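Bumping with the actual sequence this time:
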Amino acid sequence: MCSIVSVRCSSGGAFAGLAMMTMMLALLLTTTIVSGDNQIELTEQLPTVMVAVLVRNKAHTLPYFFSYLEDLDYPKDRMSLWIRSDHNEDRSIEITKAWLKRTSSLYHSVDFKYRSERGKRESEKTSTHWNEERFSDVIRLKQDALQAARMMWADYIFFIDADVFLTNSNTLGKLIERKLPIVAPMLVSDGLYSNFWCGMTSDYYYQRTDDYKKILNYDQIGQWPVPMVHTAVLVSLNIAQTRQLTFERKNLPVGRYDGPVDDIIIFAMSANYSGIPMYVCNELLYGYIMVPLEAGETVPGKDLEQLTNVLSYIVNEYGALSLKQDLSRFVADVPKDKLSLSHIYMINLERRTERRTKMLKHFDLLGLDVEHFPAVDGKQLSDKKVYDMGIRFLPGYADPFHKRPMTMGEIGCFLSHYNIWERMVRLNQQEVLVLEDDIRFEPFFRRRAYGVLADARRIGGWDLIYFGRKRLQEEDEKWIDGSEYLVKAGYSYWTLGYVITLEGAKKLLREQPLSKLLPVDEYLPIMFDNHPNESWTSHFRDRTLSAWSAAPLLLYPTHYTGDEGYISDTEDSLRIDGTLPAVGGPSKGSSGMVSNDTRDGGQGQASQEPKKGDKEQLPNAPALLSESGIGQGEHDLETKNRRSEL
């Protein structure tokens, strides 16, 4: 036996009847009435919106979904909630109840119905199997939602899936301001999947187009007419033609549709037959979307990984996640480990608390057990301190971009990495991952990191593996024999993240680099003997470091030169003043000072020159910097038009 439970509540009585005609209003406007010598200003209320949500097996997304839904900056007394849920195998109903218990009184009305029996339909092979019965149920429920919105005379209905995170609190208001009949906020996933199509085949399925990526990548920004929107869709019910919209095939014009039993396709065709355009809007970053699971994929496997990817994107963008206190108890802590390594260090300046806080959130999401390693702060260094530490600079070194000596920040950066190498030797740590604090993790980071490490250990013969870097040489890098994830590293910049062995650390220390210092991302390519400057490399004898790189990379910078929020503690710090002795001491007849003629004479134009923080500019850089996750290419979108609702 199964039971259907209905929960209804309202903050203002039944949302229907003639009394509700006053709620069918336009956007917030001020009307001025002149009465005699007086002017009276009257403010119209915002339009009413019914939010329709279908929930099934979304316990892992609901705490965040409801938190961001609650954060929408739209009057809740102008919003009604219509929620349906059934065939759950998790705590979805419990979470929904918990949230509604606290928030129901805030909204104009709440209509929540659910089936209490657990488990999939008898006709379903798995909970991710989409058969005709499942499609029919979803179609029926969405049609019920559409009819309920019409009956309550709502101005708009907003269909939204329970694995969407509207991180922009102005989403609803901004979409209503567009005054479009059907509009979807463009949502970002961990790959190329989104909630719109730019093309549809003659048999009603997804078709690749050039415009899709242009819209998705914000190469063209605005409101774009498209043949399909789904997952988060706002429909204006004040437009007469929307009475023809339907999710049910039987309601379409007779003889016109011969396509599949599919809710989003039928809805799109009903709009097409009624002459109602559909739009996707990418004027803002509105939020994020999960990629639907395929048959056979599971929530504990693929979907949890995808959730981690999306939440990581949100942390990158906003610095934190929205999670209401009463919902946090439904989010389990992720067990932490060291990725099978001896240790993981994160280099971070003590004064960069905002970076440290953001990185700690990433570690919590990814389940990484990481030790904060205080960086040597270049702002605390002086020429005298550097000299007293025994540091001498490589003769003839000048920054390749600015033709200047090292900055104090670059010195501090080198010392930070150097101190970790020393600690590795002292503690006999066999394999260590070194991370900087201005990085973003690529999708499926854990799985891909384990794959890289497994290949490296099976093949052997490596000292260092870049997880993130800036490739500088144009020649193709050779794949490591027997590996699908590793290449032999060429000349590279950046030390965003790398795995180093104990033997690799010993090699880097044996060359006594503090006696002939240059930036650490110049030193590493010298040590694996792949550096173009022979005059620099000649000062280092044992250039036998075996360096590989993950391909594709697992880490990228959070910002590039010129990006809003870009800060460099190395490039933008003070330079040495040229009074430190050169390696080997002063030559006969010299003043004992390092010549400063390598400085850039046109410092005022430095901002127009290339910097190490720039993106790669190689011919194949777009491929190298691709950010798509595993199996998330556009060719997969044709099979990704199944949703994961009921």
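The tokens above came from a reply further down the thread. Confidence is low (pLDDT under 50) at residues 12-28, 578-609, 617-646.
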